[in-house]
Each structure stands twice: as structure tokens, then as C-alpha cells.
Amino acid sequence: MTQISNQEIEKTLRNSECLISSIEVAAAYERLAAQLNLSYAGLNPIVMVVMNGGLIPAGQLLTQLTFYHRMHYIHASRYRDNQGTNELNWKFKPDVSIEGEHVLLIDDIFDEGITLKAVVEELSKEKPLSINSCVLLNKIHDRKVPDFNVDFVGIEVDDRYVYGCGMDFHGYLRHLPGIYAIKEDKL
Ligand SMILES: O=P(O)(O)OC[C@H]1O[C@H](OP(=O)(O)OP(=O)(O)O)[C@H](O)[C@@H]1O
Ligand code: HPA
């Protein structure tokens, strides 16, 4: 990923508005953790972080989990091929057996749903006992993939390109503790 100068990044930050504050995000993590703790009590699942974006939400959630679990990760990215079709590019497939296991995927955002749907379809071939997904954000629009839904959602977000809390702006700004977007008049 190409480097962007610090000045350009600072300009992006000046042109950004906060859509969801770090306080609201922290409250969403608490709510999500409480739901997961109820759903997974005693189930001893494998928690799979969907890299890169899932890293920060997973880190924030894991310390609040009260059920015993093992943590692994997968690395998959969406890309549009030259036919305009959405494909999933597997960069790292799980190197553990998930057969007969409860699996919980954690990602940052459910946008069109291409990534999580494809990941769930692929991992389901290995016959896990259950496979569910959890995201910090669900983006509200009517372009979702058919026949798939995410199971645990922290916050609904407007249909804008967002960054922070794991989500990037040209590879940067994943570390921001709130959710940001470019101001409408600066687009
Ligand atoms: O619901 P979708 O429309 O599939 O979009 C959501 C996915 O897109 C982003 O990943 P991306 O492929 O950009 O890679 P990243 O995690 O490295 O940012 C994000 O982290 C989700 O995994
Ligand atoms: O709004 C978004 N921001 C960052 N990454 C994303 N991947 C899908 N949608 C988004």
C-alpha cells in the first residue's frame, strides 16, 4: 500500500467529521460483549478475527468476554475482477481444524456483505458445529448480498465511506477510536 505524506493525512483529518464518537463505540463494544457472553456461555468457541479490519474490534471485545475461547485469524479481502464481479482474495486461510467447533467471526464492518458471506460459505465446508459473525458496524443501504445476514451488530452507520476502529482510509487511520467520514462539502 502506497505511503501518503503526513501533511496529506492531516488534511484528511481536517476534512473529516466524526459520525460516531469513541464513547458511543465503547458503549457498543460493551453491548456486543454482553450479547456474546450470553450466546456463547459454556460453548468454548474459536473466535476468528477477519484481518485487517477485524483486529481492533476483536481486541476491544476479547478482553470483555467471559466464556473460554481460542483465538485465530483469517485474512481475506474483497476485490473486483475485470468482469466487475466481486471475488474474495484469501491471503491466509485458517490453519486449524474447525470441524465440530463453534466459530465466531469478528470483523469491523458489514457493508455489502461480500466478505463475510464468502468467508462463511468457505468455512462452512469444513463442517463447524455453528458459524456466526459479529461486526462493530452495519452500513445501511439496499446493496446487501442476498441470503446472508450478520448475527451480532454494534452500531448502524449511514451509507458513507467510513474509517477508524479498524477501517482504513487508503491504508491509514484504522487506529482512530471513533468513526469518521469525509465532510460532505469536501468530497
Ligand atoms: O461487507 P463488504 O462489502 O464485503 O465489506 C466489508 C469488508 O471490507 C473491509 O475489508 P477489506 O477487504 O477492505 O480489507 P481490510 O480488512 O484489510 O481493510 C472490511 O474490513 C470488511 O472485511
Ligand atoms: O466504509 C468502509 N470503510 C472502510 N472499509 C470498508 N470496507 C467496506 N466498506 C468500508
Spell out the key features of this protein:
187 residues; alpha/beta; Rossmann fold; 6-stranded mixed β-sheet; two-stranded antiparallel sheet; 8 strands; 25% helix; globular; binds hypoxanthine; PRTase-like; transferase
- Please name the CATH topology: Rossmann fold
Characterize the biggest β-sheet. Answer: 6 strands, mixed
Structural category: alpha/beta
Number of helices: 4
| Highest CATH level, the class | Alpha Beta
Widest sheet: strand order? 4-3-2-5-6-7
CATH architecture: 3-Layer(aba) Sandwich
* Spatial gap, N to C terminus: 22 Å
Bound molecules: 1-O-pyrophosphono-5-O-phosphono-alpha-D-ribofuranose, hypoxanthine
Number of strands: 8
Low-confidence stretches: none
Portion in beta strands: 25-35%
Which shape, going by the Cα principal axes? globular
The ordered H/E elements are HEHEHEEEHEEE
Mean pLDDT: 95
Roughly how much helix do the residues carry, as a percent range?
Answer: 25-40%
Radius of gyration: 17 Å
Task: Provide an overview of this structure.
The structure is a single chain. By secondary structure, this protein is of the alpha/beta class. The chain has one domain: Rossmann fold (3-Layer(aba) Sandwich), CATH 3.40.50.2020. It has four helices and eight strands; from the N terminus they run H-E-H-E-H-E-E-E-H-E-E-E. The strands form two sheets. The chain has a six-stranded mixed beta sheet with strand order 4-3-2-5-6-7. Strands 1-8 form a two-stranded antiparallel sheet. Strand 5 (102-110), helix 4 and strand 6 (130-139) form a beta-alpha-beta unit. The structure holds 1-O-pyrophosphono-5-O-phosphono-alpha-D-ribofuranose and hypoxanthine (HPA). Residues 109, 111, 161-163, 167-168 line the site of hypoxanthine (HPA). Residues 26-154 form the Phosphoribosyltransferase domain. GO terms for molecular function: glycosyltransferase activity. InterPro entries: HGPRT, PRTase-like, PRTase_dom. It catalyses: IMP + diphosphate = hypoxanthine + 5-phospho-alpha-D-ribose 1-diphosphate; GMP + diphosphate = guanine + 5-phospho-alpha-D-ribose 1-diphosphate.
